[in-house]
């Protein structure tokens, strides 16, 4: 990692976790040309616990944002594993966020802001991206949030 990105992570009180291993029949990332596709990363905290809950039914927006930040850290960990360095990130192109939600809850964009904000905090302008935030009935392992990413790689 570059000193700038390492310094940003440190100033935020963050460190990259180990890139999570897949739990089913898929790969954690694929590179095609100048694009890195990162499989969905769940809201797994640095201590290995999983943030669980349902937005609008016991899980607050703030708790959801924390869960989304964990997803973003796991995405960056996968990117680092795939690329060897976060310096190779040219631009985060897209985040797709899934939030376990009560049927009448519409705060998914506010939750996924947790990941979006972290990407910009860590990567600066290269962290700005397009995005989708979707409410779903359930996610793997009962997690609160799952997010995948498409990242453009520097030539």
Which SSEs are present, and which pair or pack?
Layout: H1 3-11, E1 29-32, E2 35-42, H2 61-83, E3 89-100, H3 108-123, E4 130-136, E5 145-153
Q: What does this 3D model show about the protein?
A:
- The chain has 155 residues and is of the alpha+beta class.
- The protein has one domain (3-17, 25-133, 148-153): RutC-like (60s Ribosomal Protein L30, Chain: A, 2-Layer Sandwich).
- Helices cover 31% and strands 26% of the residues.
- It is built from three helices and five strands, in the order H-E-E-H-E-H-E-E.
- The protein has helices at residues 3-11, 61-83, 108-123; strands at residues 29-32, 35-42, 89-100, 130-136, 145-153.
- A five-stranded mixed beta sheet has the order 1-2-5-3-4.
- The longest helix has 23 residues, at 61-83.
- The two termini are 17 Å apart.
Q: For the residues shown, what is the average pLDDT?
A: 95
User: Helix segment count?
Assistant: 3
Low-confidence segments, ≥5 residues, pLDDT <50? none
Give the spatial strand order of the biggest sheet: 1-2-5-3-4
Helix content: 25-40%
Tertiary shape: globular
> In the CATH classification, which architecture applies?
2-Layer Sandwich
Order of SSEs: HEEHEHEE
Number of domains: 1
Q: How would a crystallographer describe the biggest sheet?
A: 5 strands, mixed
